[in-house]
Amino acid sequence: MEKQDNLAVLGPEDLSCEDMAKLLTEALGTPIRFEQMALDSYKHLFLGMGYTEAMSERMMDMNIAGADGIFNALHRTPDTSPTSFCHWAETVLKPAFDAI
Predict the structure, then answer these.
(1) Are 12 and 82 in contact (CB under 8 A)?
(2) pLDDT band at 7 (very low <50, low <70, confident <90, very high)
């Protein structure tokens, strides 16, 4: 089996979920808020969407890893990814949002 390289897809800044909600609110012109779900509710959300028990548990594991700081393990710089979350929200998400 051939070894695969990793490619981090990071923006140039560290943002909390609350930061992202604020930026989305500004970009979309509609209130967006972050609400932390209980892990059991998070798992049941995926089960309700048809995920298997095992996949629902892996999604829950990823949520736990995120809360534990896994996304902060790599240092972000302006060279990591030149596209900021705000720029993406304004140029990619907003046109898609406005189209629905």
Answers:
(1) yes
(2) low
